[in-house]
Description:
Blueprint: H1 5-23, H2 29-33, H3 35-45, E1 60-63, H4 69-79, H5 86-90, H6 120-139, E2 148-153, H7 154-158, H8 160-172, E3 177-183, E4 186-187, E5 190-191, H9 200-206, E6 210-215, H10 219-230, E7 236-241, H11 264-274, H12 285-296, H13 299-310, H14 314-325, H15 332-346, H16 352-363, E8 372-374, H17 378-381, E9 386-387, E10 391-392, E11 394-396, H18 405-409
Helix pairs in contact: 1-3, 1-4, 1-11, 3-10, 6-8, 15-16
Amino acid sequence: MTVDHKDLANAIRALTMDAVQAANSGHPGMPMGMADVATILFTRFLKYDPTAPDWPDRDRFVLSAGHGSMLLYSLLYLTGYEDITIGEIKNFRQLGSKTAGHPEYGEAAGIEMTTGPLGQGLATAVGMALAERMVAARFGDDVVDHHTYVVAGDGDLMEGVSHEAASFAGHLRLSRLIVLYDDNNISIDGGTGLSWSDDVPARFAAYGWDTSVVDGHDPEAVAAAIKAAQARPAPSLIACKTTIAYGAPTKAGTAASHGAALGEDEIKGTREALGWPHAPFDIPDEILAAWRQAGARGAADRVAWDGRHGALEAAVRAEFGRAMAGRLPDGWKASIEAFKTKMIADKPAQATRISSGAVLEALIPVVPEMIGGSADLTGSVNTRHQHGGNRSRQFRWPLCPLRHSRIRYGCGDERYGAAWRHHPLCRDVPGIQRLSAPGAALVGADETARDPCVDP
């Protein structure tokens, strides 16, 4: 039996409005509005395997508009991620559940990062797209060849951090990054015209992005836009014109559906408008089976990747595994200890930024994934380093929090990052470590001292 796109998308809408109603708390509007877009992405384009959620060559999906968390939870349940059961959906926003009001990394497989503060998800996704290109350059496209997709809303794109990150992505031509912008013109206070009047596609075009505008409720238009974006030589923004709370008889297209339960009467009317006669939390077997089939389609890609990965030379395969696990290579501690011993003996009268650069110089030969970077302040902060003759491992970037993205992606470790600037968003990084002043002990997540950036 063939299941229509409409029924697949309406399963997301139904789970969303039922879960938010049961909790009497949450944001039903965005998931209901973006259900068509998400359905196309997860059934036709996204490369993933729910039975192997940490498969390194999966596409990354970041829900930057984290308040619409039921979109992600619905997708994870429907496609077969075992951590999100129908029981977890029913327990939405309740103490101890995996389905918090905003997605929380580590609570369930399939949640690529914690998203709450708007703009954070998009900025991190830029770092993920950068990490993909860096790891591909090191290990080859046979084992690293995937995209990063983002669902972002007006609030994400209003935040300054998204401007900086988007500029950086355009500058580096990160073509594996595709942002699906929920362009619904509604904020929690009313129309977005209350607070901004940006021409978003024009702004992103100025950053060097490919841009397009589509009807977010036209599945074939969405599919064509994503297919075109995959072939572009630049990052892509697809502005999806949607109706918030699509299907709700009186609250669709209004701020009333942004951050509150629809109410029993409105939900009854929505069921009638959508042609969804099923009881709360009831997904008919044929619709669930179609979703699970969509979730299973990535298994063949993953098995093929396993073969390519297994064909790597043993040393390369081991190094790839180490890097993706975020483990530092053997010898890094000895390099640091030798550096500290020398600093204690020499007692140089120099600025801490000079010492920071020296730390990087000590680690560059033993940590292949080590990079330096600055916001056009290289000569001041000493983050330009050579390795392997004349090959520089350094970036210049805007002042945005990209540094923790490589850890979320799975190829970094912060213990050697003395030169990185601390930023409040680093609280999203597990096990952050830092280097103290010259001659002091190395402290980290496995010892008593804590990095001030990490939540207790």
